[in-house]
Amino acid sequence: MTWVADLRSAALIGTGRHAVPAPVPGLGFRPPGEVSPEELLLDQAALADVITRAARRPGTADAANTPDPAPADVAPPATGEAARLLDLLLSQPPVGQELRMRLVIDWLQFAARAGLCVPHRSLPAVLALAEARPAVAAQLLPAIGIRGRWLLGLGSTASGTLPGTAATGAGPKAAEAATELERLRRSDPAAARDRLREDWDGFSARERAAQLGVLATGLGPDDEGLLERALDEKAKIVRDAAAALLDRLPGSARAQRMATRLAPLLRVKGLLRRQFDIDLPPDPDPAAVRDGIAPLPRTGEPDRLGRLDTIIRGAPLDVWTTAAGRNPAAALAMLDREPRVVESIFTAAALRSDVEWARALLDLRADARLLSCLPAAEQEPALLRHINSGTLQPMALAALLRDVPRPWGLPLGNAVVELLAAKDGGYLAELVAPFLPLALPPDAAAQCHHLLQRSDDDASRRRVFRDVVQYQSFRQSLTEAFR
After folding, report:
1. Whether 121 and 34 share a structural domain
2. Using alpha carbons only, how large is the chain's radius of gyration in Å?
3. Domain boundary among 185, 220, 246
4. Mean pLDDT for all residues in the chain
5. Whole-structure pTM value
6. Looking at the structure, do residues 149 and 180 belong to the same domain, yes or no?
7. Interior CA angle at 229 toward 226 and 235, to 5°?
8. In a domain, 282, yes or no
């Protein structure tokens, strides 16, 4: 057994059960006086490591697999304070991981606008962060420059999220096919629909339902023909997927069929206070079942309210204004005793991004689905009305704030900071902590600096105020560095 193998055995078994080998005489190694077996083992292990490394010969380079040298960058790399701030974010970030990611994105965007690129020494760290954070990967170009593209070409997984660099796997797997179809749908909706129609017969029922979901991106009237074809499928999972998409097309033939079913169920009663009186739908015929209305159950009572929900979600919303002879807000006032019906109308308006109905429905209740239907300029005022009413609970408010376009305007920012500063604002602070630093405008964020100076025992509130101050301070430093 060789000296190195003896050392390895002693290390694995322990010096109590295996004697430490004597040093090889030819090495000229002598222990420093009396040492314990453990120290002798460690000293020889260090010596063996040095000898092994020193004796290793360089391998022969494979010219065929050697990459070409990196080309020169056209854009100059960022230097000075801008480069130092990037190094700080990559090595010793002064903020948490989420804010660090956002600040790196900010840095890349500032650099792109300034016509600069990431310093070469920082490229490996930036690409490593992008591999773990798709949001960072999406912002790499053009800030990583030609040298960064060259590094991506050597095999960084971040390349899969960049435009035009996605890997194209060569297998018939359904997941890969769905991913490729999604990419095609985003770039050429008609081509994606044609491919799905051509490949339809080769899919299982479950795969057909999954592939139909791709049509949700850019859904339009031209997709109706394929969805009508899917309604004729035997598998319920496929028919349900098609019906859910057709619910979003109020101008479709199915929507008109649903309108024909809904209109006879609506009657207006009352003279001074007009209200809707709504009948339940009859048992469905085969055509109604094809459109997604639940058939008669084999046992038990039919879910007539569920059938009504399906009809309401599928019918155009102008059925209600026509029956009422009034606008959406007035028609909703005639349904104040029908909360389930109103909920179905909420769903239909959100699915179709119907702005007129969204405005009317938001007067009844704050709803994140409908808030996003409004033009960006209307979202904050609509939300502020509900905040000022004092009816929103912290969890509901946080869900609404999460989806409002950022950064917020000053009125909304001030209103949120005021709620956080209130005596019971700690719970809301904990809920909005992940996104508040990115959402507050600088003027509203300045209030957080003053509030942070106050004595406050609420750890959640202090943490979110601190994050806001740190993020805004660092971002201001970025702004000045790229001037």
Report:
1. no
2. 33
3. 246
4. 89
5. 0.71
6. no
7. 120
8. no
Is residue 127 domain-shared with residue 38, that is, in the same domain? no
pLDDT at 164 over 60: no
Q: Name which of 371, 363, 375, 370 is nearest 328 in CA terms.
A: 363
Distance CA 120, CA 83 (A): 10
Predicted confidence (pLDDT) at residue 465 exceeds the cutoff of 60: yes
Q: How confident is the model at residue 50 (pLDDT cuts 50, 70, 90)?
A: confident
| Residue labelled with tokens 């409004």 | 374
Higher-scoring residue by pLDDT: 169, 349: 349
Structural domains of the chain, count: 4
Q: Quick check: is 70 in a domain?
A: no
Q: What is the DSSP string of 155-187?
A: T-GGGGGSTT------S--HHHHHHHHHHHHHH
Ramachandran area for residue 14 (φ above 0: left; ψ -120 to 50: alpha; else beta): left
Q: What is the pLDDT of residue 152?
A: 82
Which pLDDT score, from 0 to 100, does residue 172 have? 40
260: in domain: no
Residue 11 is part of which domain span? 3-55
Among 438, 433, 429, residue whose Cα is nearest residue 404? 438
417 and 453 assigned to the same domain: yes
Tell me how far apart the alpha carbons of residues 425 and 418 are, in angstroms, rounded to a whole number.
9
Whether the link from the prior residue into 407 is cis, omega within 30° of 0, is: yes
Computed from CA positions of residues 250, 254, 258, 259, in that sequence, does the dihedral angle turn out positive or negative? positive
Residues 480 and 388 in one domain: yes
Say how far apart CA 21 and CA 303 lie, in whole Å. 84
- Of 197, 227, 246, which residue sits at a domain end? 246
Question: 87 and 121 in one domain?
Answer: yes
Asked if 483 and 385 sit in the same domain, the reply is: yes
d(CA 144, CA 123): 7
CB-based contact 184:195 (threshold 8 Å): yes
Condensed to tens digits (0 to 9), the pLDDT of residues 293-348 reads: 999 998 989 999 999 999 999 999 999 999 999 999 999 999 999 999 999 999 99
pLDDT in tens, 201-217: 999 998 899 899 999 99
CB 250 within 8 A of CB 222: no
Q: Burial, 163: exposed, middle or buried (Cβ in 10 Å; 0-12, 13-18, 19+)?
A: exposed
Query: Is the residue at 142 inside a domain?
Result: yes
